[in-house]
Design goal:
- With about 110 residues, the protein is of the alpha/beta class.
- It has a single domain (about 5-90), classed as Glutaredoxin (3-Layer(aba) Sandwich).
- It has helices at about 15-20, 35-40, 45-50, 60-65, 95-105; strands at about 5, 25-30, 55, 75-80, 85-90.
- Strands 1-3-2-4-5 form a five-stranded mixed beta sheet, with helices on both faces.
- Strand 4 and strand 5 form a beta hairpin.
- The mean pLDDT is about 85.
Length: about 110
Amino acid sequence: MTLTKEFHKSDSNFEKLIDKEPISVVLFKTNMCENCVDAMVNLHFLKEKNIPIHVVDVMKDKILSEKYSVEVVPTVVIFRDGRVQHHLQGRRNKFEYQSKLKQSSVI
């Protein structure tokens, strides 16, 4: 899995990293969430595309979670050039993630 970093405490590098990468996928999760584990498995195809997956634990970083309107875990936010392209809440399958990335002309 292309897991570049788990962010904590509203890491100031988060915004800089998202801004500099052409495409970023951020998974907002908790440690006790089975659907979050499924999300990581379903996002595994991004490894082949060299698209980074960043993880934010909503229990440890409430500021980023609020900023990106995370009300349900897992929530996956797809960024393109630092801007939110898609905001997917709840359990999704691999094909739903692929579809959203295709809509953004990523894959």
